[in-house]
Amino acid sequence: YADLPGVPRDKLHLNVESDSLTIEGEIDMTVPDGLQSTHTEVGVARFHRVFTLSKELDTEKISAELAQGVLKLRIPKAEHAQPRRINVEVN
User: Fold this and answer.
1) Is residue 89 part of a domain?
2) How many CA atoms within 13 Å lie on the side-chain side of 12?
3) How far is it, in rounded angstroms, from Cα 71 to Cα 86?
4) Tally of domains in the chain
């Protein structure tokens, strides 16, 4: 999960390259006509974060959902990293 208040879908960019996940975005800081901003808590309207992913994750099956300022990423384990049951034969 990543909190991204004020970031619209068209200004959010996700990229996976090799074992790196990059999240980039830009906050839409428009001020309504007739108003002037005198103070803002967010000084930089753009951000860029890079995360190193484990080799046990399947980057081909990443899904992302943005709802109410929260980005939810799902990165499943690769098949070779999934636990599996081993059958024991009796002779």
Assistant:
1) no
2) 17
3) 37
4) 1
